[in-house]
Amino acid sequence: MSIALVFPGQWSQSVGMMRALAERYPRIEQTFAEASAVLGYDLWAILRDGPAEALNATECTQPAMLTAAVATYRLWRDQGGAPARMMAGHSLGEFSALVAAGNLDFKTAVDLVRFRAQEMQAAVPQGEGAMAAILGLEDSDVEAACADAAHGDVVEAVNFNAPGQVVIAGHAAAVGRAIEGAGARGAKRAVLLPISVPAHSSLMYPAALRLGERLATIDIAPRGDAAVYGVDVRVHLRPDDIRTGLVKQLHTPVYWAATVRTMIGAGATRIIECGPGKVLTSLNRRIDKNRDLTMLALEDPKSLDEALHAASAA
User: Fold this and answer.
1) β-strands 86-89, 3-7 pairing
2) Quick one: how many helices (H) and strands (E) in the chain?
């Protein structure tokens, strides 16, 4: 048995997330209190009460998702959850994975992802960028739809999440045209995502440069408790290589399906999602349908108990 922990990114947020776990386990709100002290506002209150527009603003979403993931990971370990041999995070979730593995200090990470979010929003003002999930097309067809829809703007395939699910990002008008083009090619659905910036597109390159400047001032431990897979589907141990990967992932595509397949190939038999919801778990089940694999999400007390039992089973 080999456990891999995975950490969700920016499109898993919702008002009320983490409430069920927080009602039973004080550890959740304690972790949010740590983050709130860094941010200077009550992050837990926004999760609890909304409004959704505040939570979905990228400057709030990124610290919220990082904190939710770290809180869930801490709870997992508090309750006797087995240590992971490998970890991975989807986009922003890579920061959560690095915190959980011990490469990156939590409070430092909270401030870092807030800075990351601010620079992303500054690179493309709110309303000018968009992201959408295209369902039911081959990767190459999505890329072709983007190429045909550009018309001098930017629209690119940026998240290769699972068979038949690719996320596109870029200028809002171009994303709209690409959605129409994907429909004409036979896409089953296209869903605009609650994200106020076109993450992982080339429009994020100026933000990536600024992030690199900030990362150069931050301590990163050379070796953590688990192998953390990055945007290039590789494990990096040197701090400078980790920094380079975090910069690169901001303006280049995320290859989530390849990451999951690589972890399975490295021996992962139980893949457990730390964070609100079960977006990654749903994707993971589509990536590999092997019945010998266990894929679970820690989204409430019941699912936590189920995952603890599954991880302890021989």
Assistant:
1) parallel
2) 14, 9
Q: What is the pLDDT of residues 66-100, one digit of tens each?
A: 999 999 999 999 999 999 999 999 999 999 999 99
Check if the beta carbon of residue 235 is closer than 8 Å to that of residue 222: no
> How many residues does the structure list for the chain?
314
Q: Is the pLDDT of residue 314 over 50?
A: no
Residues 284 and 260: beta-carbon distance below 8 Å: yes
Picking from 223, 213, 220, 210, the residue whose alpha carbon sits closest to that of residue 240 is 220
CA 123 remoteness from chain centre: 20
Dihedral sign computed on CA atoms, order 42, 276, 233, 250: negative
Report which of 75, 114, 18, 43 is spatially closest to residue 272, judged by C-alpha positions: 75
CA pair distance 232, 255, nearest whole angstrom: 7
Dihedral (CA of 313, 98, 223, 266) sign: positive
Q: Which residues are catalytic?
A: 91, 200
- Which residue, among 110, 100, 23, has the nearest Cα to 275 in the 3D structure? 100
Distance CA 162, CA 172 (A): 23
pLDDT in tens, 198-229: 999 999 999 999 999 999 999 999 988 899 99
Give the integer Cα–Cα distance in Å for 267 and 188: 34
Query: Counting Cβ atoms within 10 Å, is residue 179 exposed (0-12), middle (13-18) or buried (19+)?
Result: buried
